[in-house]
Write a structure and sequence with these properties.
heterodimer; A: alpha/beta; Pyruvate-ferredoxin Oxidoreductase, domain 3; Rossmann fold; 8-stranded mixed sheet; 7-stranded mixed sheet; 18 helices; B: alpha/beta; 11 helices
Chain lengths: 568, 283
């Protein structure tokens, strides 16, 4: 095990908690350290209780942690809510406002606000806190100075000077605090990348030649659009805020019909509104990619929280039956690749692709090795040579062995492209003929055999173990870490993690899962993956570890639940 | 009927004698006048009898969901603003199910032309009230008369900044087709609300009912650049139904509002591989 600590910084919204987290993660990244950070915030702009958990290690981290080595309590609520999560020997730094005497005597009382005021403004309290923490971790003041310069240079000399002074006073106090671990901040050669799922999704779309992002704001999906809009100046991109999610999905379908790759990002409620449009894309065989960033619901639910509860909904969304792809990446890097694959396969098979993310994956950031490749996913499947249609009629829905018909864009040659959401003939003319209906349903479903071959089977640590922690999507990292920790404790655990979700080859899946004791781990109340596995293979799971409180699944939670199950 | 290059061999499902046939004829005349070849024309439609229109025309077609034609058309136009896009829709499709998209398209000033086949009744679903049905009109469902006041599409368009607003009448094909030509030539969002009888279900707003009321604004010396006058016209009561261009004002269409589209159509850009390499390197 490497050197590995977790820090929680909590306070009211508007205090700049996230800024402290960002400064820490930058300092660590510059030094080649690995981080995993999670923001926990309420659906409000000011006040309330928000916190940022950052885990730091000199080795690659797969999951977040909630065993706190340092608790930074800007307000009393943070102290009360999190003091029980403190690791043995962990330390507490709390904001000394002069009157809080009830905190324990293992606590360092630091007047963050007074120090900031002394430096010239209360606003720099968060910089004081960042200074304290970096000093404790073993960074030099120079490291902090560089970061502050980069962060505040643009805001003018006065603000920079204020923050440098605030950072220095925090740093000096930090130096006097005893802590049992420190990091080497001198190492700086590395090729890592720190990214959130939101940024990775935006980059994945750009690498797929996505040029149009029609969307309607909805937490937590909006983060992807925010990240994409940062590139709107240098790339051929149109980011259009639609009047609602129905408009967003239909605009995406319209643009895709006209030859521009499009993606819409939303959360469960917005995805509900998009389902009819999803069906249109399927019926008209127009490629489109949707990211559903899950949050707990139904209805408004918990707007800024996380869940893995749309798995079965996403596989089945919209009326009737049609082929679609569903992916559920487990990390930012996986997200980048999943979004590319979603575009590539959506275009190749002319079916919709959905990428299931969630608030945890969208908003948390982590260090991963930087090997993001451009690849060939941006290459077009649109018919480039259309000369033959000068002599023969172009049939948009021509019957073929693979079920895929030649796709041209409208007004691109001397032929007509006719697409419709009504059942149609190969020419694209509306038809209610029963034989034609059968032929077209079968045409669309011919694709599934080939689509299944494109899908990656779930990954396993090893094929022999006394049980398998089985999950999907964003809980991948926590499952992996829990599994490795359990093995260190002498417990024979393995993992099975699904990232390509739909359509899966049930026979291949059955071979993999046969005779294995499955312990399903997922963020919903009804064990949806367990149901899906049973539906596809007839294999039942042994136990389930479920979580639906709106918070991420931490490794510690899985370990505790496994120990409970084993105790029975 | 004379043959045109917009004819297509597909059985028409409209009721014999439907006003839609006249609108279809006017469209063919307008496309002919504009010398717009079928393969250079995209018609986007929603659901309802008007939504079926591109099925009866030789043209590129995107026939989508109820109420959402304007969204599809907006997406297609953003993707390639060189496309000539006409949307055919009805009063239920555009002013009922799709009303949010109607005002949004106006505000974007997306450069497409909207033909609303307004028969003041739901035809395809067999005779329920539509948003433009007269207040108190009796139907099979609204047996004691409608209890919602009638939606005013042209006033809505005008006050939300539409730059080309017209009304047509299916009973005057020549006039309608020339208004269509003007609408399609207009740079930006243009709309024609087309009055049309529904011979099967609307027993109130019949052909003769319209015939008695419609008059041509042009013959009355209307200055269609006069906003105040236009505002008066769109609020005129049903006793007189003005047709022709009610208001026309140049504006900046959506694709000229965004630098990326001002340069060239979105679909015509080359994949920016080197820019992407740069940002991936710095991710």
């Amino acid at each position: 095990m490497g050197n590995d600590i977790t820090i929680l910084i909590g306070g009211a919204a508007g205090y700049g908690i996230q800024t402290i987290g960002n400064l820490l993660s930058k300092a660590c990244h510059n030094a080649g350290l690995f981080i995993f950070s999670v923001d926990d915030f309420e659906s409000r702009v000011r006040g309330g209780h928000n916190f940022h958990v950052i885990r730091i290690s000199n080795e690659l981290l797969s999951g977040p942690s909630l065993k706190l080595d340092i608790l930074v309590a800007i307000d009393e609520k943070t102290y009360l809510n999190h003091k029980d999560e403190l690791a043995p020997n962990g330390i507490i730094l709390c904001n000394d406002t002069g009157d809080d005497t009830k905190m324990s005597n293992t606590t360092s009382h630091i007047p963050f606000e007074q120090l900031a005021r002394d430096a010239g403004g209360k606003i720099a309290s968060n910089t004081v806190a960042a200074g304290v923490i970096l000093a404790i971790l073993g960074a030099s003041f120079k490291d902090l100075e560089k970061l502050l310069q980069a962060q505040f240079e643009k805001k003018g000399k006065k603000i920079l000077a204020l923050n440098l002074m605030a950072g220095k006073s925090g740093y000096d106090i930090g130096k006097t605090i005893q802590f049992y671990r420190s990091f080497d901040f001198n190492k700086s050669n590395h090729s890592n990348v720190v990214m959130s799922g939101a940024k990775a999704a935006a980059l994945g779309a750009l690498a797929s030649d996505c040029r149009f992002f029609p969307f309607y704001p909805m937490s937590p999906g909006t983060g992807v659009i925010v990240n994409a809009s940062a590139f709107a100046e240098q790339f051929p991109l149109v980011i259009e805020q639609a009047e609602d999610e129905i408009a967003a999905i239909n605009m995406a379908v319209g643009a895709s019909f006209a030859g521009v790759r499009s993606m819409s990002v939303t959360s469960g409620g917005g995805f509900c509104l998009m389902t009819e449009g999803l069906g249109l894309a399927a019926m008209a065989e127009i490629p489109v990619v949707i990211i559903n960033a899950q949050r707990p619901g139904p209805a408004t639910g918990l707007a800024t929280r996380t869940a893995q509860s749309d798995l079965l909904f996403t596989i089945n969304a919209s009326q009737d039956e049609f082929p679609r792809f569903v992916f559920a990446p487990g990390s930012p890097k996986d997200t980048y690749n999943a979004v590319k694959k979603a575009f590539h396969l959506s275009e190749k098979y002319q079916v919709p692709s959905i990428v299931l993310m969630d608030q945890f994956l969208i908003d948390s950031t982590r260090t991963e090795p930087d090997d993001l490749k451009i690849g060939s996913e941006h290459e077009s499947f649109l018919l480039s040579d259309t000369k033959m249609y000068q002599d023969e009629p172009y049939l948009r829905y021509k019957i073929s062995d693979s079920g895929v018909s030649p796709r041209c864009t409208p007004c691109s040659g001397p032929f007509l492209v006719r697409s419709t959401g009504n059942e149609h003939t190969p020419e694209g003319l509306t038809s209610e003929d029963p034989e034609n209906r059968n032929m077209m349903v079968e045409k669309r479903f011919k694709k599934v055999k080939h689509m299944k071959k494109e899908m990656k089977m779930p990954s396993l640590l090893c094929t022999e173990a006394s049980f398998f922690l089985t999950g999907w999507g964003s809980s991948k990292g926590s499952i992996i870490e829990a599994c490795l920790t359990l093995r260190e404790q002498g417990i024979d655990a393995s993992w099975i993690i699904f990232e390509d979700i739909w359509p899966l080859d049930e026979y291949k899946l059955k071979k993999i899962l046969r005779n294995k004791k499955l312990v399903i781990v997922e963020g919903n109340a009804t064990c949806q993956l367990g149901s899906l596995i049973r539906q596809l293979t007839g294999i039942d799971y042994a136990f389930s570890i479920l979580k639906y409180d709106g918070r991420p699944i931490y490794p510690e939670y899985i370990i505790e639940k496994v120990q409970q199950i084993m105790g029975h | 009927m004379t043959k045109t290059k917009y004819d297509i061999d597909n059985e028409n499902q409209w009721c014999p004698g439907c006003g839609n046939f006249s609108i279809l004829k006017a469209m063919k005349q307008a496309f002919t006048k504009l010398k717009l070849d079928p393969d250079n024309l995209l018609i986007v439609s929603g659901i309802g009898q008007a939504g079926k229109t591109p099925n009866y025309l030789a043209c590129n077609m995107l026939h989508g969901l109820h109420g959402r034609a304007l969204c599809l058309a907006t997406g297609a136009k953003i993707a390639n603003h060189n496309l000539n896009i006409v949307v055919t829709t009805g009063d239920g499709d555009c002013y009922g199910e799709g009303q949010n998209h109607f005002t949004a398209a106006i505000r974007r000033n997306i450069d497409i032309t909207l033909f609303v086949f307004n028969n003041q009744i739901y035809g395809l679903t067999k005779g329920q009230a539509s948003p433009t049905s007269a207040f108190g009109m009796k139907t099979k469902i609204q047996q004691n008369g409608t209890v919602s006041s009638s939606f005013n599409p042209l006033a809505t368009a005008l006050v939300n900044g539409a730059g080309f607003i017209a009304r047509g009448f299916s009973g005057n094909i020549e006039k309608l087709s020339s208004t269509m030509v003007d609408a399609m030539k207009y740079k930006g969002f243009s709309m024609i609300d087309i009055c049309q009888p529904c011979i099967s279900f609307n027993k109130l707003n019949t052909y003769s009912w319209y015939k008695e009321r419609v008059f041509d604004l042009e013959n009355n010396g209307h200055d269609n650049s006069d906003y105040k006058k236009a505002l008066e016209i769109v609020h005129q009561n049903e006793e007189k139904i003005p047709t022709g261009i009610i208001y026309k004002k140049p504006g900046i269409p959506f694709h000229e509002r965004l630098p990326v589209l001002r340069k060239q159509p979105l679909s015509s850009y080359v994949f920016p591989e080197s820019e992407l390499k740069n940002i991936l390197g710095r991710a």
